[in-house]
Amino acid sequence: MHTVAETLLQIRGERLSSKDPADVLRTRIWLETIFREHRLSRRDVMKLLFNKGGFQSGIVLKWLKGHPSVKPRNVIKLAGVLPGSDFVYHLPLFDLLRNKPMKKSQLDQLIKVYCTPSGPLQFWQFPQPESGGSNKFPIPPGFLFDSNALFERGDYYGLMGILYLVRKAEAENKPDEHLDYLKDAYRALPGACRHHYFRTRWRELYRCVFAIHSRVPTSLMLLRPKLSIIESQVTARTHITQRASRPRHPLTCRFSELELPYEQAGFYR
To answer: Which of 44, 49, 101, 96 is nearest to 70 (CA)?
Structure first.
């Protein structure tokens, strides 16, 4: 499925840009994670790359600026010196955020390692959540299509699972499902952004999600994210996504609800 913009480019015989904001975000988060977790400066990383050979002076600064994005082979080279530094780069989350058409077979291959084998029922096999939230209870394995359970994780794995469902609905041309899953993607976005990988880059992550949102015209027309609410949930002292972990109302005993970070168009009388 192509967006209106992609169709117009095809009619004019023009090619889509090979540079994608998701690739820039992936490069920046990969580098910043290395700086933080390995306690290295930009110059330290440049020295390591120089010693590996074949890297021009100033390449790390260029990567941070997004001109160009880092190539997978260079990530592998640096991982040979800094074991484990390639983990965040290889998260399928960034592939799902790329503003390009994706086939169902591509999507299934991306998330294969995180799911039980194909069968009547499939479940996600994610680690226990890593988030800046305050969930109290362990998260049980979630059914593949249960986007609310993915939201309740409150982490980037939950967002990744929901984005798979969003892109799958796009690939299968199911606008109703795309809209429903997209709403949970916006609900899950603050929990993912509270993780130290994404906290300083949350606006860029939001823009990538919105680009995916914009690929389906009905979702673009009917749903509008509320950036102010997303920001308040990202920066709040606590963000409890798991319903059973939230406080209850003293009179009704109902669990408190998080404010929805979107609004949907409807019919009014």
So the answer is: 49
**Does residue 22 contact residue 99 with C-beta atoms inside 8 Å?**
yes
Structure tokens at 102: 């994706």
Predicted confidence at residue 9, as pLDDT, reads 44
Q: Which residue(s) pair with 181 in the sheet?
A: none
For 225, list phi and psi in degrees, rounded to 5: -70, 150
Kindly indicate the confidence band of residue 28, based on its pLDDT and cuts at 50, 70 and 90.
Answer: very high
Among residues 161, 179, 159, the alpha carbon closest in space to that of 170 is found at 179
CA dist., res. 196 & res. 124, Å (int)? 23
Both tokens assigned to 89: 């780069």
| pTM > 0.85: yes or no | yes
pLDDT in tens, 63-78: 998 888 898 988 998 8
For 100, other C-beta atoms within 10 Å of its C-beta total 16
Give me the residue label for tokens 């199911």. Answer: 174
Tokens 């933080």 identify what position?
36
